[in-house]
Amino acid sequence: STQSTWVSESQKKLPLAVLTFNEGATSVAGFSIPTPSFECAFPSATLYEKFFVYMSAPCLGILIGIFFMIYSYTVGFESKRFLLTEYQKQRQRYHILTKGKQAWQIFLISFMVILFFFYPTLIKQCLSMSYCTKVDFGEPYSLEYNDNYQRYGNYLKADMSISCDSDRYRHFKSVPTLFLLVYGIGSPIMMIIGGVMVGMFLGKQIEIETFAFLVSGYKDHLRYWEILVMFRKLLVILSVSYITEPFFRQYAVIWVITFVLVLQLIFQPFANPVCNHLEKVSLLVLYIITNIGLLYDFNAFQTISSLHYGALVLIFILQAIVMSFFVLVMVRDFQKNVTNMIEEHNKIKKTVIKSNFAKRQPTYIAADEENYTPFRDPKVDYSAFPNNIASPIDPRPPLSITDVESVESNSVL
After folding, report:
1. Taking the complete model, does pTM exceed 0.85, yes or no?
2. How does pLDDT run across 57-78, given as a tens digit for each residue?
3. Which of 2, 236, 300, 351 stands the most exposed, by the fewest C-beta atoms within 10 Å?
4. 388 and 398 in contact (C-beta within 8 Å)?
5. Number of CB atoms found within 10 A of residue 405's CB
6. What is the pLDDT of residue 246?
7. Cα atoms in the 13 Å half-sphere on the side-chain side of 65
8. How would DSSP label each residue in 254-302?
9. How many angstroms separate the CA atoms of 72 and 94, rounded?
10. How far apart are CA 283 and CA 142, in angstroms?
């Protein structure tokens, strides 16, 4: 029937839909060159040229580093910087975006940040240039072509016009493998070695300031946990790209997620417990969804539409739970930060109280009245004086609320 045909087609398209959804979520957390825009701008570019454009994307970090170096040298493009002394310039650089960082720190941060966000895209591009698919052309139309006719052929999946058996591709095949080793394995190792070297020679504080984009949010002894996350992305992409059998490919992804989930439960790498809970929930939901995908290998999901609909609804419910939990955590964390800021402001706030006398010395009283101790002269007996008089030699009237309010209204701190 028409309904069974539609269900069968939707079952075939479900993995593609889930893959597209995940790729869309990944693009939010990373950078990617817009392929359609690039193809429109350079319609005559070949696949090899597009590949080298992707591989040169981390060089944008050098250009960004040069920009921020000029930004730091000119003190945030300050037009009056020539009137400042060198000491004043250095102090002012700590208040601009670069926070007084040195030139090597600016270049290193710029390159590492771009490489970090482009990491999944670079891995996918390297693997796409190595994945060939077998094509069956069928029987020849005429018997006279039997001698030269090749029924099967290997073609690059990213561009079916490129034969994997051609001499040009055979010479080029080692290039994506080289970039995969450099970017896929070399980049995470380079980041952790660079961080350790900076910490050894320049101190731990400089290390944390330089690699804050990588180590922020984690516990001190697990501050390079993000390197493990990068390797997790690498293993998942390799499993999806190189394992052709869907059943074993699904199992490989499940094993990777299970391993990472166990490590998360054991080490709890985030300094904020809420982040640890959020990571556990995310990995657990991902583990459940990948296991649901195994059910589509059974014939029951091919014939019973209710099972298919139930699994599909369950997947979207789990995704909605994770997103709702994430939004709730963000809102609660924002409210908590605002409350802490207000409380901290109230603690450090000081009120200047002016007396009714013009020549009276201002008295600074902490907002917390319990910590306020009025001046007492040790040579004077205060038992004969009222409590509201500070000193017998200073018989000024007691301070009124009007004095305090008048000062607060003028924002004198």
Report:
1. no
2. 888 888 999 999 898 888 888 8
3. 2
4. yes
5. 11
6. 77
7. 20
8. HHHHHHHHHHHHHH--BSSHHHHHHHHHHHHHHHHHHHHHHGGGSTHHH
9. 9
10. 56
